[in-house]
């Protein structure tokens, strides 16, 4: 990095609106390059470090919508810290495409939910009731996953009156397919439970909004609890990351 004036650790922290310890941690984690030292041992931060600190904070703040997006952001921040801004910019474009893919997957799952609730999605092949293993095979899940979904009240099996075994008819199979699709697309168990609760109350429209909107008495703890909003925010951030890197390249830092 070029030296264009020297700054203290506190100056870098204040520029990014964070604590001095965060600046030191970012160096340890590879988000900032190690600065040169003065004869007295003090770190000599440059304008480049401040630019990179601001960039890292832009990329890393807030809740993370999924591990792939998080790992992608971490990687491009580390590359930018090495001074390879062109490579980081390419990583940022790939990161933005990854976010777009996640949004498409989430929208597709929500659309499948709406079709199923309206009675236009694919139904079970016949009216036969299936056991847990057969039901799992039918929807592409495992018996353990189905049992977990039952514990979380996302679906309820039908008890066979003779054997007492858990069975699943066409309605339950359709619901299992919806639950699996939503969870695979990134929605949280809480978001899906919010939707199934409304479904059981007789609601069949606007379920996509229900998935994405925590109730007033419900605390949204993760990005997955408001998945579509989180991804939309991440899309805006991804565009800013590309723009920021391109501006730094034009400015020569």
How would you describe the overall organization of this protein?
The chain has 253 residues and is mainly α. The chain has a domain at 1-61: Multidrug-efflux Transporter Regulator, Chain: A, Domain 2 (Orthogonal Bundle). Helix content is 61%, strand content 3%. It contains 11 helices and 4 strands, in the order H-H-E-E-H-H-H-H-H-E-E-H-H-H-H. The chain has a two-stranded antiparallel sheet. A two-stranded antiparallel ribbon has the order 3-4. Helix 1 packs across helix 2 (20-28) and helix 5 (85-117) packs antiparallel against helix 8. The chain starts with 8 loop residues before the first helix and ends with a helix.
Number of helices: 11
For the largest beta sheet, what order do the strands appear in spatially? 1-2
Structural class: mainly alpha
Helix content: 55-70%
* H-E order: HHEEHHHHHEEHHHH
Question: How is the topology of this model organized?
Answer:
Layout: H1 9-16, H2 20-28, E1 36-37, E2 43-44, H3 47-60, H4 67-81, H5 85-117, H6 132-139, H7 143-151, E3 158-159, E4 166-167, H8 170-184, H9 189-200, H10 207-212, H11 227-251
Antiparallel strand pairs: 1-2, 3-4
Helix pairs in contact: 1-2, 1-3, 3-4, 3-11, 4-5, 5-8, 5-11, 6-7
In short:
The chain has 253 residues and is mainly alpha-helical. 61% of the residues lie in helices and 3% in strands. The radius of gyration is 24 Å and the shape is elongated.
Protein traits:
Multidrug-efflux Transporter Regulator, Chain: A, Domain 2, two-stranded antiparallel sheet, 253 residues, two-stranded antiparallel ribbon, single chain, mainly alpha
């Amino acid at each position: 990095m070029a030296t264009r004036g020297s700054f203290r650790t506190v100056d870098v922290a204040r520029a990014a609106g964070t604590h001095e310890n965060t600046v030191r941690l970012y160096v340890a984690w590879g988000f900032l390059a190690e600065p040169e030292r003065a004869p007295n041992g003090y770190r000599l931060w440059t304008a480049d470090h401040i630019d990179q600190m601001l960039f890292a904070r832009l990329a890393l703040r807030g809740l993370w919508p999924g591990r792939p997006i998080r790992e992608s952001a971490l990687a491009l921040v580390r590359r930018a810290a090495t001074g390879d801004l062109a490579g980081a910019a390419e990583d940022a474009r790939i990161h933005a495409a990854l976010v777009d893919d996640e949004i498409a997957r989430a929208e597709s799952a929500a659309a499948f939910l709406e079709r199923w609730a309206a009675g236009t999605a694919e139904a079970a092949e016949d009216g036969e009731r299936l056991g847990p293993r057969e039901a799992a095979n039918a929807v592409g899940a495992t018996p353990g996953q189905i049992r977990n979904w039952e514990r979380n009240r996302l679906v309820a099996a039908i008890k066979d009156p003779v054997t007492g075994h858990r069975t699943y008819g066409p309605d339950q199979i359709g619901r299992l397919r919806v639950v699996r699709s939503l969870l695979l697309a990134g929605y949280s168990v809480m978001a899906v439970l919010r939707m199934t609760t409304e479904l059981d109350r007789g609601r069949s429209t606007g379920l996509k909004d229900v998935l994405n909107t925590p109730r007033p008495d419900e605390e949204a703890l993760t990005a997955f609890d408001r998945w579509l909003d989180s991804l939309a925010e991440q899309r805006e951030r991804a565009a800013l990351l590309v723009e920021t890197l391109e501006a730094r390249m034009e400015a020569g830092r």
